[in-house]
Amino acid sequence: MNRLSVCHFILIGLLFWGLPAVFVVGPSAILYTFAAVIPVWICARCSSAMKWSTQPDSGIGTTTVFILVSFAITYLIADALFGQKLFASNLFLHGVKAVDMSVDQSNAMNSQGRGIVALFGTIIGLLPYCLIDVTRHARRFERWALWTAAILLLFYGVAASRAAAVMSVLIIVMGKTSNWRRILVAGGAAFALFSFASAVRGDLATSRNPLAEAIGAPYVNLLLMRAAHCGSAPWYYYIGEFFKKFIPGFIYPKSVYSFNVETSLCIYPSADESVTSVSIFTWLGEMFYYTPSILTALCAGILLGLMGLLVNRQLVRNGLPCARIGVGYAIITLLRSRSQDVLTYLIAQVIFFLFWPHLYRLSRYLRHCVAPLSGLTSSRELADDVTQS
Q: Which domain holds residue 272?
């Protein structure tokens, strides 16, 4: 696990969700999967492994811990009161209603870019895992503060997603490293939490095996999508959707193609053009929509590989092994839905690393600013004493 880069996790996700599709759409699934895998594999060979010798061993000060925890708690309170208000759709707080709220939000935001609040929430998604990484440099009391802030952020970000809850447990239990014992414990804890979340969300009332349905449903939807002939678009539209992500919707109004929502409406049409549930089609759904599909798969692999290489470099540079595993699990989960979702997530992490090093070193910057001022004050006092003498 320690030797896996972000690109390796992308490879796992592409293969895990791509190859089984051969049973529903035929040999083309294998062709498109390997067309996307090859560029990512090349980037994986160029990726740096997480080297423990390059990570800082020095402890961090109480001021740094205070800044990090204060920032995390301030963000959580502000976003819960005035921002995304994710507690209102939290799975463990509202059960079945959480799913309905999520669907309503998808209908409301259909074809719209992310607002500034949602965009900042996506960017800040890596913060709890970074706090967990920082704990290894902190003293015991400081570790408790960092862990508390991280767990609160993870619980807040669950919303209606069982995958987010399971991913949090896997990362917390397995930590920055792993062995067979930790893998078994993490797997058991993740399965127990998934079953509990399914019961809370009401999935057990409609399905005898929610886990099998969660894994198999995207392939069934992919088959329905192919049978319904839900239209197509040129391959360069896929690239266009990627570059649109760099233009914030709150700065310049833009129209984005909500693939899962539009395809759900194609399969299950409604009179009011709204969905009662958002279907997912694995990352291959986009490959079949944008034609020629082989060219789309190659472009997807190139974009995923380059973005994964960039994010992995930042994770290694900042010495964040737990965050790297968090990014990897998130990518595997997102590829169950769309490759464009993965690209959005990776872009958000690139933005996150523009300010994370400065937030982590803020106390050091403050000391450098205070020291000259203190020296200047001492010099003035000495000059006054000499003058008076």
A: 6-388
